[in-house]
Amino acid sequence: MKMSVKEVADLVGISVRTLHYYDEIGLLTPEETTPSGYRLYSDDNLETLQQILFFKELGFPLKQIKEIISSPSFNRLEALQQHRKMLLEKRSRIDRMINTIDKTIQHMKGEIQMTNKEKFEGFDFSHNPYEQEARERWGDEAVDNMTAKINNLSTEEREAMSKTANAIYNKLAALRHGSPESEEAQAAIKEWYDFLNENFGHYSLEAFKGLGQMYVDDERFTETIDQFGDGLAKFMRDAMAIYADNDQN
Fold this sequence. Notes:
By secondary structure, the chain is mainly α. It has helices spanning 5-12, 16-24, 43-57, 62-70, 76-108, 131-138, 140-151, 155-175, 183-199, 205-217, 219-225, 232-248; strands spanning 3-4, 32-33, 39-41. The protein has three domains: 3-70, Multidrug-efflux Transporter Regulator, Chain: A, Domain 2 (Orthogonal Bundle), CATH 1.10.1660.10; 75-116, no CATH class; 123-248, Globin-like (Orthogonal Bundle). It has twelve helices and three strands, in the order E-H-H-E-E-H-H-H-H-H-H-H-H-H-H. Strand 2 (32-33) and strand 3 (39-41) form a beta hairpin. It is globular, with a radius of gyration of 22 Å.
């Protein structure tokens, strides 16, 4: 029995607008559209939607998902097996990070002592879920150079990079209730600009400003950054835009 767009939205827990958008971009076309314009989804449509949401959960952009599932060589069973493998890896990393958080809480309470290495267990810079977007925005060469540089880092160097990034995030989070134009905010955002250029290749001011907008436009970025403080992604977006505009003037 075919389902209406509202029935599918209620079943899956996504918005009707999302389903309309998937149809508009050719990612998920309902099996039937009635003369009155109502979209009707089949069981096969639902299986395709499940695949789309698995890919989305793993950080794939919609453009790439469309290319994958539209390919003649696409095999649904193989994709599910790969999804399972990737999700198990993700769960393992999250479990390690939760364990690190629990130990950090105990450390702060004085119940245990943590080594510097233990403080960064679970963080992984070897996989970048935003790589496809980066390739589309800044080209393959820049991303390949950045990836090669990260892969050549030792464990200690990656830990140091993570520690530096977290310190800058925390500094900005402490300033987020003030003005992004303030001297303190601009000094901190310059640290972020310098950090990105030192570790991930050259960022032009225009690219830096665009990255800040991406922090707000892409919910994955927003969710990650706002872990350091609600509203931090928007504050960084504004501070990055101000920094870029002032340096170009």
